[in-house]
Structure formats: structure tokens, C-alpha cells
Amino acid sequence: MQQNTFHYPTLIYDNYCSSCSKFAMAIYILSRKRIEIMGHFDTERSTQLKKMVFKDYSKDPTRMFWYVKEGSAFASRSGLIEILKDLPQMILGTSKYDKVALIDQKCSKACYIGNNFYSRYGCGDDPKSISKRIRYLLKNSDSLHWSIQE
Q: How far apart are CA 132 and CA 125, in angstroms?
């Protein structure tokens, strides 16, 4: 069995979207560096983690951000609720989670608009795009249980 080299909790976000990248970085800072952040795209670590977490997930996991804990993963609205539950202890320094350094980050400074998803649900820092992303986040939700064992 492969040794688990991941830090939990981890936020997997759309690193092609600048507003999503800013959201992830804000969560990392607010959590006092206790929530690791990984982009959906372009990182070997996120690919490995997604293979473990989403191996039995039939939908496209890149359509939402995911808050991954050991054994559970929460997307969009349910992910936001879980983050809000964990943040107070992290801010107060009473959390059971350790600090983590950022590894292999490729945050977007601009949006990749060639994808129909971005034009439909917003990508960017303008109020209209942020509003579209927030509406998408609040309307969609998902969760799953996963195991490290194969």
C-alpha cells in the first residue's frame, strides 16, 4: 500500500480561475496555514489526491471546489459549510490540524476563457463574474466518503 503523503484538510480549487485562486489563498491565510490548497489542474500532487478521492465518483469533480478531509470530501456549498465549521478553531489556534507549507502552486492571475464553463459561470474579478461564481457555489453541493485502502 502506498504511504499517504497528503495533509488534511485540503482545499482543491480551480486554479485556472483567478477569483477561485484568490478564494483559495484567502482560505489558506484565514486557516493560519492549516488548510492545504491545491489546484485541480497542473499539479502532480492534486492529480494523485484526486485519483484516490474521486476513483468511484461518476461526475466531473473539476466543476466545483472540494474540501477534502481524511475519509470525506465536500464540494461547493457543503464544502463551504465544513470550512466555516473548522475555521474558528484554526483562527484561535486550538485546531487539531498542523500547519502546512504551500507545495507546487500554480495560481491563475487571469482566467482561461476558452472553456464554455467559465463564460457561463464566470471567471474573473469583475462583480458579474464573482456573482456568477457565488451563485454556482451556493446552488451546487456534493459530498462523498473515500478510503485510502485500495
A: 11
Residue spans of the domains in the chain: they are 10-145
* 90-114 residue pLDDT tens: 999 898 888 888 776 665 555 555 5
* Phi, psi at 134, each rounded to 5°: -65, -45
Among left, alpha and beta (phi > 0; psi -120 to 50; other), residue 120 is alpha
DSSP string, the chain: -PPP---SSEEEE-TTSHHHHHHHHHHHHHTTS-SEEEESSS-HHHHHHHHHHTTT--S-GGGS-EEEETTEEEEHHHHHHHHHHHHHHHHHT--SPPP----S----SS--TTSHHHHHH--SSSHHHHHHHHHHHHH-EEEEE--S--
pTM for the whole structure: 0.82
